[in-house]
Amino acid sequence: MPLDRISTAAHDGATGPATSDLPPLPDALRQRLADCRSLPSLPAAAARVINIARSPEPRLADYARAIEQDPALTLRLLSMANSAFYSRGGNPVTNGLDAVSRIGLDATLTAALSFGLPRPGSSEALEYEYLCQRAVIAASAAQELAQHLCPHEAGQLFTTALLQDIGILALEAVDGERYTDHIPGIRQHQSLVDAELALYGCDHALVGAWLALSWGVPGPMAAGIIASHGPLIDGDPHCLCLRLSCRIADCWLAADSASAFSILLRQLASLASLDIVMLMTVMQDLQHRLPSLAKLFEITCPPAIDSLHLLAEAKELLFEQNLRMTMRLAEQQRELEALHASHVALDEQHRTDHLTQLANRTWLEKRLDQHFECARAADQPLSVIFIDLDHFKRINDRYGHRFGDEVLIHFAAALNNMVRESDIAGRYGGEEFLVIMPNTRRQYASLLADRIREYLATQPLARADGEALHVTASIGIADLEDGDFDCAASLVDAADQAMYGVKRGGRDGVGHYEEPTNPAS
Ligand SMILES: Nc1nc2c(ncn2[C@@H]2O[C@H](COP(=O)(O)OP(=O)(O)OP(=O)(O)O)[C@@H](O)[C@H]2O)c(=O)[nH]1
């Protein structure tokens, strides 16, 4: 139901009730409500208090004057102000002004409205006592919940919850036995709402809001009455307090309240804004407050609930909640680890040459850039070795490409075993390999190049037609000290040039880069 259509005009000091701004009542019902002479009404003193509440700057003295015109209401307020809840050991108050200043404006308005708790119509089927008990429990529960969820609205929520079922009395006044005959009783609230919708096209919440506005209660309170039947969801604490308050009242008054509360607690376990410990505090405070409230509202005190059973249930729920949370945490941890593993795998894939599992060219170039900058900044040595397997085309042509692949894989594994932990060996392309040797001068790079050649000379990289296949390599070495290199790529080019020198010289050897001599010098 669109709450934004409820007018707040009454709250803002407009002269008449803004019933025209309510979501529309079905025509036939509206007419009957307008014609009904026995609708629940407020006593004159309560109406005066509401009028003062609607004024722009309500003053305590105005409230006190309005109240003192009605001795019964004055007595009610004095007894409220002197009750243990409000007096907190202070001196007894004896006049309206002191009573109003002790209990505050919100509670005064509440008292005035509750004083006007409408009387029942003719039908006994309505269980008026039950309705009053339900209203008082809901009002008190809404207020207690609000102390935790939206403290500044606690006073208003008490009154809204108190009036939330006022529409039931209005419908009974309008339709008498037809209403009570067609509803399934007032203890099953959802079935009651369904029956009202079928009978009138709207439920008692809308009728109640309409009636409350016609008394002049503030618009937001009327909106709250309509909202009171909605689902229990996180988000709006005001709505949650109201909606939960009547469910608590239903459970409190249920024939088997222990099971009713168990079911409710389990429904609530999924709400993030409610924690079970807070709910238990609310229930205990409620249990404690109800006898004095019942006295104040002159109703039979609702039966006490089995708080031991409720606590046991809550404990079990807490345990389940913790268990669920621990399981969720463990699951999240597993997901995180899986994500991390797949990230590592992806990263690995991104860096690795898929055939030889050595670093690929992109990664080699990236790492060389870093080492080049570091070596230059710290004035440290750096060498690279460029290795090109000789006559590789012949191997492919003779034994096939797949065989050639096996040779590359074998050589890559051998190369990886020969380099130090701090070196980076990778496949630069085709049958070309590069080794980055941080903090290494050409003499040590030379030793590695010799070891590679020695390995190739002694270890066959494959067997073909029953014969060992030996492969040779041409190796070029460049040291940072060998020239005036302006970037990492120029160092690789230098090693490449040195390797080509070896190729030109007949292959199977090691060459060092030499800076071309300037013919002019
Ligand atoms: N099996 C296999 N062959 C490759 C791969 N990448 C490049 N090659 C081959 O390597 C051979 C390189 O041939 P060339 O550049 O002519 O050099 P080469 O035959 O080794 O001769 P030199 O370098 O002059 O000694 C070509 O036949 C390429 O097809 C690969 O991933 N697998």
Radius of gyration: 44 Å
CATH hierarchy: architecture of the domain at 122-305: Orthogonal Bundle
Indicate the proportion of strand residues.
5-15%
- Number of discrete helical segments: 21
**What is the CATH domain class of the domain at 122-305?**
Mainly Alpha
Find the CATH superfamily of the domain at 122-305: Hypothetical protein af1432
Structural class, from secondary structure content?
Answer: alpha+beta
Instruction: Spell out which ligands are present.
Output: guanosine-5'-triphosphate
- Bulk shape: rod-shaped
Biggest sheet: strands side by side, in what order?
A: 2-3-1-6-7
- Helix share, percent: 55-70%
> What does the main sheet amount to?
5 strands, mixed
Distance between the termini: 95 Å
Task: List the secondary-structure elements in sequence, H or E.
Answer: HHHHHHHHHHHHHHHHHEHHEEHEEEHE
CATH topology of the domain at 122-305: Hypothetical protein af1432
- Low-confidence stretches are 1-20
| Mean pLDDT over the full residue set | 85
Number-wise, the strands total 7
InterPro entries: Diguanylate_Cyclase, GGDEF_dom, HDOD, Nucleotide_cyclase, Rev_trsase/Diguanyl_cyclase
Catalytic activity: 2 GTP = 3',3'-c-di-GMP + 2 diphosphate
Domain GGDEF: 380-515
Domain HDOD: 39-231
What does this structure look like?
This protein has 521 residues and is an alpha+beta fold. Among the domains are: 122-305, Hypothetical protein af1432 (Orthogonal Bundle), CATH 1.10.3210; 361-512, 2-Layer Sandwich (Alpha-Beta Plaits), CATH 3.30.70.270. The chain is built from 21 helices and seven strands. It has helices at residues 27-35, 44-54, 60-68, 71-81, 84-87, 96-115, 128-149, 154-163, 166-182, 189-200, 204-215, 219-227, 237-253, 257-268, 276-296, 307-351, 361-378, 392-399, 401-418, 442-458, 488-504; strands spanning 382-389, 424-429, 432-438, 462-464, 467-469, 473-479, 509-512. The strands form two sheets. The protein has a five-stranded mixed β-sheet with strand order 2-3-1-6-7, sandwiched between helices. It has a two-stranded antiparallel sheet with strand order 4-5. Strand 4 (462-464) and strand 5 form a beta hairpin. It is rod-shaped, with a radius of gyration of 44 Å. Residues 1-20 have low confidence and may be disordered. The chain binds guanosine-5'-triphosphate (GTP). Guanosine-5'-triphosphate binds next to strand 1, helix 18 and helix 19.
